[in-house]
């Protein structure tokens, strides 16, 4: 790595935070006559929480690799992040994962109340489809429409929401490798895939490049999930079978539990290699995306 | 009325039901690899419940008045209905209105569970933004994008979701007439307004006509709400002040409670007159929309 990725990510994260802050402020949009204060505050609580912003940064860096850097790219990146944030607000609800804290802060239903958290999630999701349609996102309305529609597909029953359903059904039930892969490709994979695909499309990359970056998104999605499962297992003193991590506790099947640590590490190496190969033809332009892939594979938190 | 509106509405409702049935079935869309069965079943439970389909029928009839009748119009109508259905699924949740029954059937969280109902609502909302983007909706992607974006505005913090927030905050709190109007124009008005506006846009009506039908949507939205409040009050043996309806029980301020029944009836007559005036220039073509407005003003259930 020829530059400080952590510092770079922090800088990009600030861009995203500032853009989100602008979107989640009080000025009214056409067709709006009010933004109820309590709802806006709850949405801000759910979205402006200092997250890592991995998904929007992937949008930004992919578009940048293909030569586009401007506020419109940031808007599109924010639309995706709004979807991610809504999913966290709803996942934290008592009926779902029942989490009281996120990033050390009370979750939205704790800071406000359950009804407000449900509405805040709903409104964050809805706002994403307003933001992605903004003129600045792309001069061609047809491209904006494609970005909007693919965002809906990545987030809906065939993507994130469907994956979350499969995950809820996974507790205390055995899953085959194929089932686990399906679940993960929907629950976490779909938005990461979308991030890279959207970034390439925003920069008018040729279809072959959009496809290549889509695959890159799938690869880092797989790596992200494997690294996550590995952390869950290795957070405990004993490994495999006796793991005391959160997934094991919930009786959730993961590839790490199916494969063991060694095979998982080998698969991560393979994925890293595939990611590098996909980026190979872009030369030094791909430096940041490549560093991001390494970061995802080897992350320790 | 020169034709049987009830029969007509039933027929149109069937069109919508059939189209929704097609959308909420198992064939996968591009970018989808699975539609988890339990989630799809919960979405179907929430959407295929024999509702009146007032909003999609307004889309359909408005487009028809301007000369367009085809499957694409039905798709756009269904997108709006999916948003309406999601809002009912979430509104029924224990943390919101806590309703066990809707149209005599168990609500989604009763038939399934709370987590599934939250996800089903989320996925219905998300699916709306997939459906509205379908090619059949309009040949011009720019028009589809506008329809999508205006749907987001009508449904989000500045529209329905924001109105629901204001409504939750209304319990046991006095509201001014202006505040009640604001709440209602967001909570129920925004989608009815959208229905008529979208119908005109789908049929490539000139801007002046789109504006006129937008106002028509606002007018029937107001009438819809007043008729609703009136029903709530008149369902009880004693009227005004001592009303034992659901709103009064919840301590919710309504215009009927502020104005009394007579003034409310007079306002409904005025709204009916404005609706008729707005449709005046369209002659016999407007017969169905005009009948729909009368139906909304004088409905008894």
TrEMBL record, chains A, B:
Its cofactor is Mg(2+). Gene3D superfamilies: Farnesyl Diphosphate Synthase. PANTHER family: FARNESYL DIPHOSPHATE SYNTHASE. The keyword ATP-binding does not apply. InterPro entries: Isoprenoid_synthase_dom_sf, Polyprenyl_synt, Polyprenyl_synt_CS, Prenyl_diphosphate_synthase. This is Polyprenyl synthetase family protein. It comes from Roseibium sediminicola. Keywords: Isoprene biosynthesis, Magnesium, Metal-binding, Transferase. Belongs to the FPP/GGPP synthase family.
């Amino acid at each position: 790595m020829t530059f400080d990725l952590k510092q770079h990510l922090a800088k990009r994260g600030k861009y995203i935070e500032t853009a989100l802050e602008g979107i989640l402020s009080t000025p009214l949009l056409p067709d709006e006559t009010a933004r109820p204060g309590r709802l806006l505050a709850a949405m801000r609580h759910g979205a402006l929480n200092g997250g890592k912003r991995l998904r929007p940064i992937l949008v930004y860096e992919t578009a940048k690799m293909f030569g586009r850097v401007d506020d419109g790219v940031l808007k599109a990146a924010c639309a995706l992040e709004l979807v991610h944030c809504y999913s966290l607000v709803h996942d934290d609800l008592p009926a779902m994962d029942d989490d009281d804290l996120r990033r050390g802060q009370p979750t939205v239903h704790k800071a406000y109340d359950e009804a407000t958290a449900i509405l805040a999630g709903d409104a964050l999701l809805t706002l994403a489809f307003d933001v992605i349609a903004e003129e600045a996102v792309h001069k061609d309305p047809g491209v904006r429409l494609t970005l909007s529609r693919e965002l809906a597909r990545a987030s809906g029953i065939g993507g994130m929401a469907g994956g979350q359903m499969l995950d809820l059904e996974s507790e205390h039930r055995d899953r085959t490798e194929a089932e686990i892969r399906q679940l993960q490709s929907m629950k976490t994979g779909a938005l990461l895939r979308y991030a890279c695909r959207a970034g390439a499309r925003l920069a008018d990359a040729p279809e072959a490049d959009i496809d290549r970056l889509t695959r890159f998104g799938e690869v880092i999605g797989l790596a992200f999930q494997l690294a996550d499962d590995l952390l869950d297992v290795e957070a405990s003193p004993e490994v495999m079978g006796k793991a005391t991590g959160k997934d094991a506790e919930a009786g959730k099947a993961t590839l790490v539990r199916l494969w063991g640590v060694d095979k998982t590490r080998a698969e991560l190496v393979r994925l890293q290699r595939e990611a590098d190969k996909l980026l190979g033809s872009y030369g030094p332009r791909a430096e940041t995306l490549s560093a991001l892939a390494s970061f995802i594979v080897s992350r320790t938190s």
